[in-house]
Design a protein that fits this description.
homodimer, mainly alpha, Phenylalanyl-tRNA Synthetase, Chain B, domain 1, Non-ribosomal Peptide Synthetase Peptidyl Carrier Protein, Chain A, three-stranded antiparallel beta sheet, DNA-binding
Chain lengths: 154, 154
DNA sequence: GACCTTTTGACCTTGTCTGACCTTAATGTC
DNA sequence: GACATTAAGGTCAGACAAGGTCAAAAGGTC
């Protein structure tokens, strides 16, 4: 438990816990400097510990004034959302994706227009690829949209 | 958000929001003076944030009494769909895709939630592929969503 | 020793900012 | 009116400031 990646992970999670907004901005190079490591080490930590599946959103920007922004999603493990997001899985077919959207529509979670928008993004011909990839990308898109809705909930 | 270009962008957008006519006239050198930067920095901001695809028209005039005039170009949701869909093209980068969505939001064509939904579907890591394909799929997704919105109009 | 995780370094891409030099328009002078 | 002067804005290459990627080396674990 004494490796760098764990230390950096803890550091970031402490920062997140302290922040009101559930968001921290850090500089990749600066953070690497603090921990005396290669900048790409920061990417490793982000890629292994701050995945969407773990309830984090990482956004970055390059160039002057660039940053790494981490946002924590307070996912309630009992909430229907969590189950919903899990139900998407690694890959999902078009009919199963549409079924999820239809249920959201029926339950009044999304509007008619929102449902149309989601359907439009899940179409087979839209994600014009061969089998396994098509379903994987569809799962990514759907999961990402579900999380966006969840975030918009407040 | 600590870079000059963003500050100047915000400044100009505030001016535009305050203006009745949806137009502002500024002096390039004077503005550069205000922000203590090179005049060409102003051109950089105009070229990266006030393009036609962002919904702005920039006109300038040189010589004595010269000016930079920025006009907000409002999207007409009944007429501009064709052009909008065409502007997506065969392939589109994430920033350009987001610019289109931002414009839809700005002009009240989509709601906040709808915009979030669209953004969620356009993310880099969501369409987890390498270059040209990533942009091609993003274009398909965005085009499909625009068409869905258009159809929902009736 | 096979396998997984961590760490680094070389090289890449994107975004910002400046400075030197260019073009155009208005105004003043003869 | 011709010409010079002055007052704008335009262009572009290049420096600078981030973050991204990937493969290979190093370190742990069983």
């Amino acid at each position: 438990m004494a490796n760098l990646a764990d230390l950096i992970e803890q550091h970031l999670k402490r920062l997140l816990a302290k922040s009101e907004s559930g968001t921290v901005d850090v500089g990749r190079n600066q953070l690497a400097e603090t921990f005396s490591c290669a900048p790409s080490q920061i990417n490793y930590v982000l890629a292994t510990r701050f995945l969407l599946e773990h309830g984090y959103i990482v956004e970055t920007r390059r160039g002057g004034g660039g940053y790494v922004r981490i946002t924590v999603l307070e996912l309630d493990p009992n909430a229907d959302w969590q189950r919903l997001v899990n139900s998407v899985g690694e890959a999902i077919s078009q009919p199963r994706g549409e079924a999820i959207v239809n249920r959201l529509l029926r339950d009044g979670v999304v509007s008619h227009r929102e449902a149309l928008l989601m359907m439009a993004a899940l179409g087979r011909d839209v994600l014009s690829m061969k089998q396994p990839w098509c379903d994987i990308v569809r799962a990514n898109v759907l999961r990402s949209m579900l999380i966006a809705l969840y975030r918009a909930k407040r």
